[in-house]
Structures are given as C-alpha cells and as structure tokens.
Design brief:
Blueprint lengths: L14 E8 L5 E8 L4 H16 L7 E6 L8 H15 L3 E6 L5 H9 L7 E6 L1 H18 L17 E6 L5 H7 L4 H9 L4 E10 L2 E6 L2 E5 H10 L8 H12 L3 E9 L32 E13 L23 E7 L3 H9 L13 E13 L10 H15 L12 E3 L2 E2 L5 E12 L11 H4 L3 E2 L1
Parallel strand pairs: 3-4, 3-5, 5-6, 6-16
Antiparallel strand pairs: 1-2, 1-17, 7-8, 7-16, 9-11, 9-14, 10-11, 10-13, 11-12, 12-13, 13-16, 14-15
Helix pairs in contact: 2-6, 3-4, 7-8
The chain binds adenosine-5'-triphosphate, ligand LY3EYVUO and calcium ion (CA).
The ligand CCCCCCCCCCCCC/C=C/[C@@H](O)[C@H](CO)NC(C)=O binds next to helix 7, helix 8 and helix 9.
Protein name: Ceramide kinase
GO biological process, one term: ceramide metabolic process
GO molecular function, one term: ceramide kinase activity
C-alpha cells in the first residue's frame, strides 16, 4: 500500500512485514510492507500475532545444513550464497550451519557418515546438478544404512529420505532446479526454502551385476550425452561453455552404438511421454501408482545414436521444454528415449527440436517408452563379466575398424552420463524409486493471467 494504515506518530517506530511476491517468468521476489501505529500496545499485539502465526507453520524450516561448492559453474557459489541467500534466511529467522566443500564428494561423505541430521529441518545445496547428486547420494545412502537396507540389491525397496533438499542454482546446467522451479534464480529458490515448499521426486538406482553404481535424478544418457560429458569433463576450465563446445564436437563425430535395451513398460499410469500436458504444480498425474498386474518386458535391439532415460523433463535454459517435456517429477517412471542410427541431418533436426516447441519424438528413428525398469546390454559385452571400458575399449575399437574398413569408426562403447557423472560400466540395470526424496520446491506453476488476484502474497 502507498499510504500507511494508521497515521504516523514520530515517537512510535514503524513495523515492517516482508513477504513473497511473484515476478515474471516464475521469479519470486521479497517485498516489504511497513505499518505505522500510534497505539504501542496494539502494535505489539500485531507483531506477536504475526510471529505466532509464522511459528505455527510447521512446514517452514528453522535450522538448515548448507553445502556450498565453490568450484561449480562460474565458481560463484560462495558469493551467490553470501550476497543473495544468507540475508533472506536471516530475515526469516532461519539459522544455518554452512560448509564450503574442500574436495569432490566432501558433502556426500559428510552426510553419509558424520552429519548430525536430527538437528536440521533440511539440507541446502549451493551448486549444480553434480553437487545436488552428491547431496542425494549422501542422504539416500545414510537413510538406507540407518534402516538396514542393502543398496546393492536392484530389487530392494528403498526407504524415502525425511529431510528436504533445497537447491540454490550455481552450476552449469542446473536442470533439476529449472525443472522444479521454472527458473534458475538463487533468490527464487531461497524463497521456496523459506516458505517450506515440498516437492517429491523420483530417483533411479543404477546397478551393474548386482552391484550398486549410482542414483540418477535427471538424465541417464548413453551415446550422444555420454560422449558430450566425457569430452566436456576434460574442458572444465571452459566453465559452462564446455557443454556447447563438446556438444558440437560430439555431433560431428556422429558415433552410434550397438546393443539391446529391455524395459518394463509402465502400463497402469494415466500419462504418456507424447502428452501435450506438462507436469505442473498442484493436483496432476504425479502420484505413485501400484502396478495391478505384471506386464511383459519389451526388447529393442539395434544401433543407437542416443539412449536417454529422463526421469523428469530435464528442462534447462538450453532446452526450456527439456529432453522429455511431458515427463513427471514424481510418478515412479522414467521416459526411455531411443534414437536409432540416422543421418547427421536428421539427428540435427531431432536435437534442434529440443530447443523449440516441435515434437522431438515425432521422427521415424525415435521411439519413447514410459518405463519402471530397464536394462542395457552393449553388443560386444562378453556375458556378464563385462570388459573394463577404459582398458579394453581401445582394443575393441581398433578390432571393429579392422573388421569393417569402410565403417565410420564408431567405438564399441560409449559411457553413461548419470546426472553429469560418468559411469564405469556400459551394461546397466535401472529401476525407478517413486518419491524417494523431497525438494524445497512446488513444481513449475502455471503463469496466471492476472497475477495479483490469483496469487495472494505470503509473509516471510
Ligand atoms: N570443493 C570442491 N572441489 C572440487 N570439486 C568439487 C568440490 N565440491 C564439489 N565438487 C564437485 O564438483 C562437481 C561439479 O559441481 P556442480 O554440479 O556444482 O557444477 P557444474 O558441473 O558446473 O554444474 P552442472 O552439474 O549443473 O552442469 C560435482 O560433481 C562435485 O562433486
Ligand atoms: C547441435 C545443437 C544441440 C542442441 C541440443 C540442445 C539439447 C540440450 C539438452 C540438455 C539436457 C541436459 C540434461 C541435464 C543433464 C545434466 O544432468 C548434466 C549435468 O549437469 N548436464 C549435461 C549437459 O550433461
Ligand atoms: Ca518420473
């Protein structure tokens, strides 16, 4: 309001209430409204009532454990936290323990073994998808250990984590933040933490020969995205631009990989990967359904340019609709996208559709299945005792080229890109764990036509 509620009395100090206001493109901002009151007792009553109302909101965190990756993205993590996030947490009376990581896996191992989790209402991750993956690994492994669950068994039902995770985006892709909030903006994410939002998320477990390898929350990509990541890791010094450079280079190499993908279709759900509707905040198709009957596994064999499993849309600034625009955050399924060998021109058409509203699945060489589990076996995999990728990859590569002198020299194996980490095996088994973790987010909100009317403010 432009005018105070009560006449200003110079002897009485004004009182300020901070609140969340929606801005453009899913941004949230903090605004203040100042009240003046000549009656001191009444003023105190207001303050007391507002404090009591806020304290009664049990979903709001009061004590948080914060991990900052100082080397993610443009290496701005500490600065982003100190300048944009810490003041908001202080304003909302949230106390924090802050750890600036000193090496890779510092946050994961601290959460797994040392952190006194009972003290906290949530964990905050300042960094990119890789740093978020560390936090998830730490929390999920700790929860399984505390509950006596064996992560090495692919069929084991995992115990959900009780602590929520907040992501302050400070990485290169930040697709998990973008796909759950709608924008990569540290202030917006901090405000979602403060108001105590809660968004459940599916987590995929990845196994090789009954041994646990990793969890995946966003993308598991073999072929194109695996090769982009392998090349870009050697160019970390380029910062976020490394993905564009390696993406272009990988596109030119145009390697394909042979193998078999078997999958368990999710037939008892309402949505499909070709839906025009999107996973949005509020009531939607995002719930864990219990399969009523067993369906058979499907198998697809062939030569693939890319095999992608998107457990969520994987929307990011590079691809605002994502790899699988209709994927759900928390329905217990992943969208398995198989891109068969095709011409460079056609693959470019497919890739470019990720940057527009055109349907990237509407192409003869692309198929997509919504699945609960899948396995991949590369063609040259020797039974179950798979070759070590690094040691034997080169040998196989030259062998294949000798056998097929006119071939385009595709190596036998790619690697799996698991949320930005390279997996050490090509043959993997993947299962989706419905709603295993929760974020301080609410999913992407539909943009209302009349923002002020549809979205009443929310006090800090
Ligand atoms: N102190 C540290 N020193 C070196 N590496 C670290 C440190 N802390 C965390 N890491 C590692 O840095 C890697 C990359 O971090 P992060 O995900 O934050 O940024 P990014 O890779 O630039 O972004 P994105 O994953 O969104 O593409 C993570 O895999 C994490 O394990
Ligand atoms: C030649 C034109 C190419 C255009 C292709 C645009 C498609 C971009 C889609 C990016 C999806 C990224 C999914 C997220 C993956 C993250 O887990 C990972 C780590 O941050 N990032 C990458 C790039 O692998
Ligand atoms: Ca999903």
């Amino acid at each position: 309001p432009s005018s105070p509620l009560y006449p200003v009395t110079p002897s009485r100090p004004p009182s300020t209430v901070s609140y969340v206001e929606r801005a453009r493109q899913h941004r949230w901002r903090c605004s203040d409204v100042t009240f003046h009151c000549s009656d001191g007792a009444l003023r105190q009553q207001w303050i007391q009532t507002i404090r009591e109302q806020l304290t009664a909101l049990t979903s709001r965190p009061k004590h948080l454990l914060v991990y900052i990756n100082p080397y993610g993205g443009k290496q701005q993590g500490e600065c982003i936290y100190e300048q944009k996030v810490a003041p908001l947490f202080a304003c909302a009376s949230i106390s924090t323990d802050v750890i600036v990581t000193e090496h890779a896996n510092h946050a994961r191992d601290h959460l797994k073994t040392e952190a006194e989790l009972k003290k906290y209402d949530g964990v905050v991750c300042v960094g990119g998808d890789g740093m978020f993956s560390e936090i998830v690994h730490g929390l999920v492994s700790r929860t399984q250990r505390d509950n006596g669950v064996d992560q090495n068994s692919p069929e084991e039902k995992l115990v959900p984590c009780s602590l929520r995770i907040g992501i302050i985006p400070a990485g290169s892709t930040d697709c998990i933040c973008y796909a759950t909030v709608g924008i990569n903006d540290p202030v917006t994410s901090a405000l979602h933490v403060i108001v105590g939002d809660s968004q459940p998320m599916d987590v995929c477990s990845v196994h090789h020969n009954n041994t646990f390898l990793r969890y995946s929350i966003s993308l598991l990509g073999y072929g194109f995205y695996g090769d982009v990541l392998a090349d870009s890791e050697r160019k970390r010094w380029m910062g976020p631009a490394r993905y564009d450079f390696s993406g272009f280079k990988t596109f030119l190499t145009h390697h394909h990989y042979e193998g078999a993908v078997s999958f368990l279709p999710a037939t008892d759900i309402l949505g499909t990967p070709r839906d025009k509707t999107r996973c949005r905040a509020g009531p939607n198709l995002c719930f864990c359904s219990i399969p009523e009957y067993e369906v058979g596994w499907g198998v697809v064999r062939g030569k693939f340019l890319a095999i992608n499993a998107a457990s969520m849309s994987c929307a990011c600034p590079r691809s605002p609709m994502g790899l699988s625009p209709a994927a759900h955050l928390a329905d217990g399924t992943t969208d398995l996208i198989l891109v068969r060998k095709c011409s460079r021109f056609n693959f470019l058409r497919h890739l470019l559709r990720h940057t527009s509203k055109d349907d990237q699945f509407d192409m003869t060489f692309v198929e997509v299945h919504r699945v609960r589990r899948f396995r991949f076996t590369p063609r040259h995999c020797q039974n179950d005792s798979e070759l070590d990728l690094r040691e034997n990859g080169k040998q196989l590569f030259s062998q294949i080229c000798r056998d097929h002198p006119a071939c385009s020299c595709s190596p036998a194996y790619s690697s799996w890109n698991c949320d930005g980490e390279i997996l050490p095996h090509a043959a993997i088994e993947v299962g989706v764990h419905c709603q295993l973790i929760k974020l301080f987010a609410r999913g992407i909100e539909e943009q209302p036509l009349f923002e002020d009317l549809a979205n009443p403010p929310c006090a800090l």
